[in-house]
Design goal:
- This protein has 385 residues and is α/β, with parallel strands linked by helices.
- The protein contains 15 helices and 13 strands.
- Helix 8 packs parallel to helix 9 and helix 8 crosses helix 13.
Length: 385
Protein backbone atom coordinates (compact mmCIF):
# COMPACT_ATOMS: atom_id res chain seq x y z
CA UNK A 1 0.00 0.00 0.00
CA UNK A 2 1.18 3.51 -0.80
CA UNK A 3 0.01 6.59 1.13
CA UNK A 4 0.49 10.29 0.39
CA UNK A 5 0.17 12.82 3.22
CA UNK A 6 -0.57 16.35 1.97
CA UNK A 7 0.41 19.22 4.30
CA UNK A 8 1.07 22.93 3.97
CA UNK A 9 4.52 22.65 5.54
CA UNK A 10 6.89 20.20 7.20
CA UNK A 11 8.32 22.92 9.45
CA UNK A 12 8.36 21.48 13.02
CA UNK A 13 7.81 24.97 14.46
CA UNK A 14 4.31 25.02 12.95
CA UNK A 15 3.00 22.56 15.51
CA UNK A 16 1.86 18.99 15.91
CA UNK A 17 0.65 18.16 12.39
CA UNK A 18 4.03 17.23 10.93
CA UNK A 19 5.10 15.60 14.21
CA UNK A 20 2.06 13.33 14.02
CA UNK A 21 3.11 12.17 10.54
CA UNK A 22 6.62 11.43 11.82
CA UNK A 23 5.18 9.38 14.67
CA UNK A 24 3.18 7.28 12.21
CA UNK A 25 6.26 6.18 10.26
CA UNK A 26 7.01 3.30 12.64
CA UNK A 27 3.43 2.00 12.21
CA UNK A 28 3.62 2.32 8.43
CA UNK A 29 6.91 0.45 8.40
CA UNK A 30 5.48 -2.36 10.51
CA UNK A 31 2.44 -2.63 8.22
CA UNK A 32 4.69 -2.48 5.13
CA UNK A 33 3.08 0.73 3.94
CA UNK A 34 5.09 3.17 1.87
CA UNK A 35 4.49 6.76 2.95
CA UNK A 36 5.38 9.99 1.17
CA UNK A 37 4.63 13.66 1.86
CA UNK A 38 3.56 16.43 -0.50
CA UNK A 39 3.99 19.98 0.82
CA UNK A 40 4.21 23.65 -0.15
CA UNK A 41 7.76 24.03 1.19
CA UNK A 42 10.72 25.05 -0.93
CA UNK A 43 13.10 22.13 -1.48
CA UNK A 44 15.93 24.15 0.09
CA UNK A 45 14.17 24.59 3.47
CA UNK A 46 16.53 23.47 6.23
CA UNK A 47 14.00 21.39 8.20
CA UNK A 48 13.67 18.95 5.30
CA UNK A 49 16.96 17.39 6.44
CA UNK A 50 15.12 15.75 9.37
CA UNK A 51 15.89 12.02 9.12
CA UNK A 52 12.50 11.11 10.58
CA UNK A 53 10.76 12.40 7.47
CA UNK A 54 9.88 9.95 4.68
CA UNK A 55 10.23 10.98 1.01
CA UNK A 56 9.05 14.60 0.69
CA UNK A 57 7.86 16.23 -2.55
CA UNK A 58 8.13 20.03 -2.42
CA UNK A 59 6.22 22.28 -4.82
CA UNK A 60 7.00 25.62 -3.18
CA UNK A 61 9.06 28.46 -4.57
CA UNK A 62 10.78 31.30 -2.74
CA UNK A 63 10.80 33.48 -5.85
CA UNK A 64 7.09 33.52 -6.76
CA UNK A 65 4.83 32.55 -3.85
CA UNK A 66 1.72 31.86 -5.93
CA UNK A 67 3.59 29.25 -7.97
CA UNK A 68 3.30 26.73 -5.14
CA UNK A 69 -0.49 26.60 -5.49
CA UNK A 70 -0.31 26.13 -9.25
CA UNK A 71 2.45 23.54 -8.86
CA UNK A 72 0.39 21.66 -6.26
CA UNK A 73 -2.47 21.17 -8.73
CA UNK A 74 -0.15 20.10 -11.53
CA UNK A 75 1.68 17.63 -9.26
CA UNK A 76 -1.51 16.04 -7.91
CA UNK A 77 -3.06 15.74 -11.36
CA UNK A 78 0.06 14.02 -12.62
CA UNK A 79 0.85 11.67 -9.74
CA UNK A 80 -2.20 11.17 -7.48
CA UNK A 81 -3.17 7.89 -9.17
CA UNK A 82 0.14 6.41 -7.99
CA UNK A 83 -1.26 6.25 -4.44
CA UNK A 84 -3.79 3.94 -2.83
CA UNK A 85 -4.78 6.57 -0.28
CA UNK A 86 -4.26 10.34 0.07
CA UNK A 87 -4.40 11.84 3.56
CA UNK A 88 -5.13 15.53 3.89
CA UNK A 89 -3.77 16.82 7.20
CA UNK A 90 -5.63 19.78 8.70
CA UNK A 91 -8.45 22.10 7.60
CA UNK A 92 -8.91 25.64 6.29
CA UNK A 93 -6.08 25.35 3.77
CA UNK A 94 -5.65 25.40 0.02
CA UNK A 95 -4.31 21.85 0.22
CA UNK A 96 -7.84 20.70 1.16
CA UNK A 97 -9.28 22.18 -2.01
CA UNK A 98 -6.53 20.74 -4.21
CA UNK A 99 -6.83 17.21 -2.78
CA UNK A 100 -10.63 17.26 -3.02
CA UNK A 101 -10.64 18.41 -6.65
CA UNK A 102 -7.95 16.03 -7.90
CA UNK A 103 -8.93 12.98 -5.82
CA UNK A 104 -12.57 13.14 -6.90
CA UNK A 105 -11.54 13.77 -10.52
CA UNK A 106 -9.24 10.72 -10.61
CA UNK A 107 -11.40 8.56 -8.32
CA UNK A 108 -8.69 8.20 -5.67
CA UNK A 109 -9.66 7.49 -2.06
CA UNK A 110 -8.80 10.26 0.41
CA UNK A 111 -9.15 10.86 4.15
CA UNK A 112 -8.99 14.06 6.18
CA UNK A 113 -7.42 14.37 9.63
CA UNK A 114 -8.91 17.31 11.53
CA UNK A 115 -6.02 17.88 14.00
CA UNK A 116 -8.24 19.81 16.42
CA UNK A 117 -9.10 22.50 13.87
CA UNK A 118 -12.85 22.24 14.51
CA UNK A 119 -12.53 22.97 18.23
CA UNK A 120 -15.12 25.64 19.20
CA UNK A 121 -12.42 27.43 21.23
CA UNK A 122 -11.18 29.01 17.98
CA UNK A 123 -14.59 30.62 17.33
CA UNK A 124 -13.81 33.34 19.89
CA UNK A 125 -11.77 35.09 17.18
CA UNK A 126 -14.78 36.56 15.37
CA UNK A 127 -13.12 37.80 12.18
CA UNK A 128 -11.36 34.48 11.62
CA UNK A 129 -14.58 32.62 12.44
CA UNK A 130 -16.50 34.58 9.79
CA UNK A 131 -13.83 33.77 7.20
CA UNK A 132 -14.06 30.10 8.17
CA UNK A 133 -17.86 30.14 7.85
CA UNK A 134 -17.51 31.39 4.29
CA UNK A 135 -14.80 28.83 3.48
CA UNK A 136 -16.93 26.09 5.04
CA UNK A 137 -19.92 26.91 2.86
CA UNK A 138 -17.89 27.20 -0.33
CA UNK A 139 -15.34 24.41 0.07
CA UNK A 140 -14.59 22.82 3.45
CA UNK A 141 -17.84 20.96 4.08
CA UNK A 142 -17.66 19.49 0.55
CA UNK A 143 -14.10 18.29 1.20
CA UNK A 144 -15.27 16.47 4.35
CA UNK A 145 -18.51 15.22 2.80
CA UNK A 146 -16.73 13.51 -0.09
CA UNK A 147 -13.87 12.08 1.99
CA UNK A 148 -13.72 8.36 2.55
CA UNK A 149 -13.28 9.12 6.26
CA UNK A 150 -12.75 12.15 8.52
CA UNK A 151 -10.50 11.34 11.47
CA UNK A 152 -10.26 12.70 15.00
CA UNK A 153 -7.54 11.74 17.49
CA UNK A 154 -9.89 11.25 20.45
CA UNK A 155 -13.54 10.87 21.37
CA UNK A 156 -13.38 14.20 23.17
CA UNK A 157 -12.19 15.99 20.03
CA UNK A 158 -14.93 14.37 17.98
CA UNK A 159 -17.64 15.46 20.43
CA UNK A 160 -16.30 19.00 20.71
CA UNK A 161 -16.17 19.39 16.94
CA UNK A 162 -19.94 18.92 16.73
CA UNK A 163 -20.29 22.12 18.77
CA UNK A 164 -18.24 24.19 16.33
CA UNK A 165 -21.35 25.70 14.69
CA UNK A 166 -20.40 24.86 11.12
CA UNK A 167 -23.31 23.64 8.99
CA UNK A 168 -23.97 21.40 7.12
CA UNK A 169 -22.09 18.87 9.27
CA UNK A 170 -22.53 15.59 7.41
CA UNK A 171 -19.55 13.30 6.87
CA UNK A 172 -18.27 9.86 7.83
CA UNK A 173 -16.24 10.03 11.06
CA UNK A 174 -13.66 7.88 12.80
CA UNK A 175 -11.20 8.01 15.71
CA UNK A 176 -7.49 7.25 15.39
CA UNK A 177 -5.12 7.98 18.26
CA UNK A 178 -1.52 9.01 17.67
CA UNK A 179 1.11 6.29 18.20
CA UNK A 180 4.13 7.07 20.34
CA UNK A 181 7.11 5.01 19.18
CA UNK A 182 9.35 2.85 21.36
CA UNK A 183 9.27 4.20 24.87
CA UNK A 184 12.24 6.48 25.62
CA UNK A 185 11.72 5.30 29.22
CA UNK A 186 14.06 2.43 28.30
CA UNK A 187 16.71 4.24 26.35
CA UNK A 188 17.15 7.66 27.96
CA UNK A 189 17.68 7.12 31.66
CA UNK A 190 20.69 9.43 32.05
CA UNK A 191 20.17 13.16 32.55
CA UNK A 192 23.64 14.22 31.39
CA UNK A 193 23.32 16.30 28.20
CA UNK A 194 20.51 18.60 29.34
CA UNK A 195 21.92 19.32 32.81
CA UNK A 196 25.41 19.72 31.35
CA UNK A 197 24.10 22.35 28.95
CA UNK A 198 22.18 24.16 31.71
CA UNK A 199 24.28 23.49 34.86
CA UNK A 200 22.32 25.91 37.07
CA UNK A 201 19.45 23.40 36.93
CA UNK A 202 21.44 20.76 38.80
CA UNK A 203 19.63 19.53 41.96
CA UNK A 204 16.53 21.61 41.14
CA UNK A 205 12.92 20.41 41.14
CA UNK A 206 12.22 21.17 37.50
CA UNK A 207 8.81 21.98 36.06
CA UNK A 208 9.10 21.50 32.30
CA UNK A 209 7.02 23.29 29.71
CA UNK A 210 7.77 22.09 26.17
CA UNK A 211 5.80 23.44 23.24
CA UNK A 212 5.15 26.50 21.14
CA UNK A 213 5.23 29.73 23.11
CA UNK A 214 1.98 31.42 22.16
CA UNK A 215 -1.25 32.65 23.73
CA UNK A 216 -3.15 29.40 23.20
CA UNK A 217 -0.73 27.41 25.35
CA UNK A 218 -1.40 29.53 28.48
CA UNK A 219 2.22 30.09 29.51
CA UNK A 220 1.36 33.48 31.06
CA UNK A 221 -1.03 31.73 33.48
CA UNK A 222 1.64 29.18 34.39
CA UNK A 223 4.18 31.92 35.18
CA UNK A 224 1.72 33.78 37.43
CA UNK A 225 0.77 30.57 39.22
CA UNK A 226 4.43 29.55 39.51
CA UNK A 227 5.20 32.94 41.10
CA UNK A 228 2.46 32.45 43.69
CA UNK A 229 3.51 28.92 44.61
CA UNK A 230 7.24 29.54 45.06
CA UNK A 231 6.74 32.75 47.03
CA UNK A 232 3.93 31.59 49.30
CA UNK A 233 5.49 28.20 50.01
CA UNK A 234 9.03 29.49 50.45
CA UNK A 235 10.41 27.12 47.79
CA UNK A 236 12.27 29.65 45.64
CA UNK A 237 15.64 27.94 45.91
CA UNK A 238 14.58 24.43 44.95
CA UNK A 239 11.92 24.84 42.21
CA UNK A 240 12.79 25.97 38.68
CA UNK A 241 10.61 26.43 35.59
CA UNK A 242 12.12 25.41 32.23
CA UNK A 243 10.43 26.73 29.08
CA UNK A 244 11.40 25.01 25.82
CA UNK A 245 10.09 25.65 22.33
CA UNK A 246 9.79 28.11 19.43
CA UNK A 247 8.00 31.38 20.11
CA UNK A 248 5.70 33.98 18.59
CA UNK A 249 7.56 37.28 18.96
CA UNK A 250 4.78 39.48 20.41
CA UNK A 251 3.76 36.90 22.97
CA UNK A 252 7.38 36.18 23.88
CA UNK A 253 7.95 39.88 24.61
CA UNK A 254 4.82 39.89 26.79
CA UNK A 255 6.06 36.84 28.71
CA UNK A 256 9.49 38.34 29.28
CA UNK A 257 7.97 41.57 30.58
CA UNK A 258 5.80 39.55 32.96
CA UNK A 259 8.85 37.66 34.26
CA UNK A 260 10.70 40.93 34.88
CA UNK A 261 7.71 42.48 36.65
CA UNK A 262 7.45 39.46 38.95
CA UNK A 263 11.25 39.35 39.43
CA UNK A 264 11.44 35.72 38.36
CA UNK A 265 14.46 35.92 36.03
CA UNK A 266 16.63 33.60 38.12
CA UNK A 267 13.85 31.00 38.54
CA UNK A 268 12.91 30.54 34.86
CA UNK A 269 15.12 29.27 32.03
CA UNK A 270 14.30 29.53 28.32
CA UNK A 271 16.12 26.88 26.31
CA UNK A 272 14.77 27.42 22.81
CA UNK A 273 13.48 24.38 20.86
CA UNK A 274 14.80 20.99 22.02
CA UNK A 275 15.16 18.00 19.74
CA UNK A 276 16.21 14.35 19.87
CA UNK A 277 18.30 13.24 22.87
CA UNK A 278 18.45 16.71 24.40
CA UNK A 279 14.65 16.80 24.47
CA UNK A 280 14.41 13.38 26.14
CA UNK A 281 17.07 14.34 28.67
CA UNK A 282 14.96 17.40 29.51
CA UNK A 283 11.98 15.12 30.18
CA UNK A 284 14.17 12.89 32.34
CA UNK A 285 15.55 15.85 34.27
CA UNK A 286 12.18 17.30 35.20
CA UNK A 287 9.98 16.15 38.05
CA UNK A 288 6.75 17.16 36.36
CA UNK A 289 5.64 18.22 32.90
CA UNK A 290 3.21 21.13 32.57
CA UNK A 291 0.99 22.08 29.63
CA UNK A 292 -1.43 24.83 30.82
CA UNK A 293 -3.21 25.00 27.48
CA UNK A 294 -6.48 26.71 26.56
CA UNK A 295 -6.98 24.22 23.71
CA UNK A 296 -5.10 21.05 22.86
CA UNK A 297 -6.20 18.46 20.34
CA UNK A 298 -4.02 15.62 21.66
CA UNK A 299 -0.84 16.77 23.37
CA UNK A 300 2.05 14.75 21.93
CA UNK A 301 4.35 16.18 24.61
CA UNK A 302 2.01 14.87 27.30
CA UNK A 303 2.22 11.33 25.90
CA UNK A 304 6.01 11.64 25.62
CA UNK A 305 6.23 12.71 29.24
CA UNK A 306 4.07 9.80 30.37
CA UNK A 307 6.26 7.39 28.40
CA UNK A 308 9.13 7.94 30.84
CA UNK A 309 6.93 7.98 33.92
CA UNK A 310 6.64 11.72 34.41
CA UNK A 311 3.34 12.97 35.84
CA UNK A 312 1.61 15.90 34.18
CA UNK A 313 -0.08 19.17 35.09
CA UNK A 314 -2.58 20.20 32.44
CA UNK A 315 -6.08 21.58 31.95
CA UNK A 316 -9.47 20.17 31.04
CA UNK A 317 -9.01 21.80 27.64
CA UNK A 318 -6.67 18.97 26.62
CA UNK A 319 -8.75 16.44 24.72
CA UNK A 320 -7.14 13.46 26.48
CA UNK A 321 -7.59 14.85 30.01
CA UNK A 322 -10.22 12.26 31.00
CA UNK A 323 -7.82 9.42 30.18
CA UNK A 324 -5.10 11.03 32.31
CA UNK A 325 -7.54 11.58 35.14
CA UNK A 326 -8.74 7.96 35.10
CA UNK A 327 -5.17 6.76 35.69
CA UNK A 328 -4.33 9.41 38.30
CA UNK A 329 -1.41 10.37 36.03
CA UNK A 330 -2.03 14.10 36.08
CA UNK A 331 -3.28 17.09 38.02
CA UNK A 332 -6.21 18.46 36.01
CA UNK A 333 -7.70 21.93 36.45
CA UNK A 334 -9.59 24.64 34.60
CA UNK A 335 -7.44 26.73 32.27
CA UNK A 336 -7.12 29.63 34.70
CA UNK A 337 -4.78 31.04 37.32
CA UNK A 338 -6.53 29.54 40.35
CA UNK A 339 -6.66 26.09 38.83
CA UNK A 340 -2.94 26.10 38.03
CA UNK A 341 -2.03 27.37 41.51
CA UNK A 342 -3.99 24.48 43.00
CA UNK A 343 -2.33 21.90 40.70
CA UNK A 344 1.20 23.21 41.32
CA UNK A 345 0.59 23.24 45.07
CA UNK A 346 -0.74 19.67 45.08
CA UNK A 347 2.32 18.51 43.14
CA UNK A 348 4.71 20.39 45.41
CA UNK A 349 3.21 18.77 48.52
CA UNK A 350 3.59 15.18 47.26
CA UNK A 351 5.83 12.98 49.38
CA UNK A 352 8.23 10.52 47.74
CA UNK A 353 5.85 7.55 48.00
CA UNK A 354 2.96 9.50 46.47
CA UNK A 355 5.15 10.81 43.66
CA UNK A 356 6.51 7.35 42.84
CA UNK A 357 2.99 5.95 42.69
CA UNK A 358 1.93 8.73 40.34
CA UNK A 359 4.99 8.07 38.21
CA UNK A 360 4.01 4.40 37.85
CA UNK A 361 0.48 5.44 36.93
CA UNK A 362 1.86 7.76 34.26
CA UNK A 363 3.80 5.02 32.51
CA UNK A 364 0.84 2.66 32.76
CA UNK A 365 -1.40 5.29 31.18
CA UNK A 366 1.05 5.66 28.30
CA UNK A 367 1.48 1.92 27.77
CA UNK A 368 -2.25 1.18 27.68
CA UNK A 369 -3.38 4.15 25.58
CA UNK A 370 -0.66 5.73 23.46
CA UNK A 371 2.08 3.19 22.83
CA UNK A 372 2.27 2.31 19.13
CA UNK A 373 1.68 -1.43 19.64
CA UNK A 374 -1.62 -0.59 21.33
CA UNK A 375 -3.03 1.31 18.34
CA UNK A 376 -1.64 -0.69 15.41
CA UNK A 377 -4.90 -2.63 14.88
CA UNK A 378 -6.80 0.67 14.70
CA UNK A 379 -4.45 1.75 11.91
CA UNK A 380 -5.06 -1.47 10.01
CA UNK A 381 -8.82 -0.98 10.15
CA UNK A 382 -8.78 2.73 9.30
CA UNK A 383 -6.34 2.51 6.39
CA UNK A 384 -8.23 -0.32 4.72
CA UNK A 385 -11.63 1.29 5.28
Amino acid sequence: MKILHVVSSTNPDDGGVIESIKLKQSIYKKLKIKCEILCLDDSSDKWLKDKRLPIVHCVGSRKIAINKYINLFFWLNKYIRNYDLVVCDGLWQFTNFAVWKTATKHNVKYQVIVHGMLDPWFNKYIFKYIKKLIFWQLIQHRVLRDANLVLFTSKEEKNLSKKSKFYPYNFKQGILSLPIDKSPYIFYKKKNSFINKFPKLKKKKIILYLGRINKKKGLDLLIKAFDTVIKHNNTKKEIHLVVAGPYEKKYYIKINNLIKDLKLDEYITFTGPLYDKLKWDAYNSCQIFCLPTHQENFGITIAESLSIGKPVITTNKTNIWKILNNYNAAFISNDDYRGLVKSLTRWNLLNRKEYNEMSKNSFQCFKENFYKDKVINDFKNILTN
